[in-house]
Amino acid sequence: MTIKVLLADDQALVRAGFRSLLARSRDIAVVGEAADGEEAVRLAASTGPDVVLMDIRMPGVDGIAATRRIVTEPPTSGSRVIILTTFDTDEHVFAALRAGASGFLTKDVEPADLRRAVAAVAAGDALLSPGVTRRVIEQFVRGRHLTAGAGQRLAVLTAREVEVARLVALGLSNDEIAERLVISPLTVKTHITRAIAKLDVRDRVQLVILAYESGLIRPGE
């Protein structure tokens, strides 16, 4: 199945570069290009992309606001967003992840890694780079007050689901969690899927954010 991708960046050369890189994959098709967030939302509604590659800093409606609208409002709520940033320490990255982005890439990403990331997110594997994404989340959660409501939300999980959620937040892959708990990767995936559904979060990234905000895991742990 062809993965439909929408590019959103205010620099035409950046869009052209990503279009060229993605064109090398027969399984990926770029269905549109947007120069700002408002246009990205409009094109997402008309083209139905599986994945949106979204720049954060754009004129008018920025990438954070556009991401929030795309992932929460019909008919685009099924689309997933990958944030594009110049530096992985960009202070806006966490806000974008909080808004519902499924992960992020720096603009100097290797071509093969870009294509793999698009395919992974389209398949529902939200956490592109567990270590890097966790570091960004940890950096911006550090020093924040814990959210009481977030801690109460975890009460709906079984003890094993809490354990799996904690290991997800630590940046472990499904295979690593399976090895740690001596269960199958398929069982791990089932626990994660159930935890995401019970907590009413969008994906694995949102599960990690909730784990930090609830105090299930603390920065530096």
UniProtKB/TrEMBL annotation:
4-aspartylphosphate: residues bearing it: D55
Response regulatory domain mapped to chain residues: 4-122
Keywords: DNA-binding, Phosphoprotein, Transcription, Transcription regulation
Residue stretches making up the HTH luxR-type domain: 150-215
Entry-linked SUPFAM superfamilies: C-terminal effector domain of the bipartite response regulators, CheY-like
Highest rank taxon of the organism: Bacteria
Stored PANTHER family: TRANSCRIPTIONAL REGULATORY PROTEIN NARL-RELATED (PTHR43214:SF24), TWO-COMPONENT RESPONSE REGULATOR (PTHR43214)
Name this polypeptide is given: Response regulator
